[in-house]
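Reviewers of the previous submission asked for a worked example of the structure-prediction workflow described in the proposal, so we include one complete record here. The input consisted solely of the amino acid sequence. No template or homolog information was supplied to the procedure at any stage.
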Amino acid sequence: MAEGANSTPAYASAGVDIAAGDRAVALMKEHVGRARRPEQVADPSGFAGLFRLDASRYRSPLLATSTDGVGTKVMIAQRCDRHDTVGLDLVGMVVDDLVVCGAEPLFMTDYIACGRVVPERVAELVKGIAEGCRQAGCALSGGETAEHPDAMRPDEYDLAGAGTGIVEEDAVLGPQRVREGDAVIAMASSGLHSNGYSLVRRVVDEAALRLDARVPELGTELGEELLKPTRIYAQDCLALAGAVEVHAFAHITGGGLAANLARSLPEGLDAVVDRATWSPPAVFPFVAERGAVGPADMEATFNMGVGMAALVPSASAQRALALLEERGVPAWHAGSVVAGSGKARLEGAYA
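From that input alone, the workflow returned the following structure tokens.
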């Protein structure tokens, strides 16, 4: 985590407190230390993260890369003054994109921009990122914290990250493997994950909802529900692909289930998903009702309870479900692949 050298009076008077940055680095070290892999190599200068790749373990390795952020969910975290969960969202958005092609996440770097460095807050952010990396099985190999006075208000911040993974060239998953008759296995989301928060915030503000108010239908405070961290599927997907023939994954993010599932389909095949196979968690009808958001807009914005989908041969569906259950991932047979034109469609009504 890079910060500058000694602070100067002139720089401090301009709003940049390098001493605070140095303290933030010291506070985050304990968390970063929990997100390591044996392939990491120390860079004496501290300017880069080094990772030893044992090429002898692979036949024809491809490196995969992905980058993402958390979006305006960070604004909910700032309003609630809780900063230890959005880091998990950041990792989930990155590593679960990597695993769609079958890549094992190896390492991540993060970038935190803030109006003012508050060491304890930065450490909380990194704590979440490190925990996300631990869950994903990847290393947190470095990052940057930048103080942007005037460009951001003192209590504002934003997160971004990039990850690198590896996959054998002949093991790349995707539309090229999908076949007619494949089963669509849906994996439950933990809630909203990290998409649609511009709409969520509009609903909260226009309905004058309090984030610290307990909502009976949610069983918790509204802010607590909105800050539920994204479920991280990377290790579960890798375990599934190692035990069962998997043709493709689809990470259900912005655009919803139909749009993201279609990205994993070849021309000439459709995925038909039966809404009756699950009931969206309470937060989705809550947003729809309080914001008067129609069904089409809900499904085009939110995951509606499905955070990841796998396309597997129908003969492997039960084994896939059993493995996911063993790993504590709620999952169900949600549909199938049929002849079509490369689209995914949801049919019927939710349970």
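The longest strand covers residues 157-168. We consider this example representative of the routine output the project will generate in years two and three.
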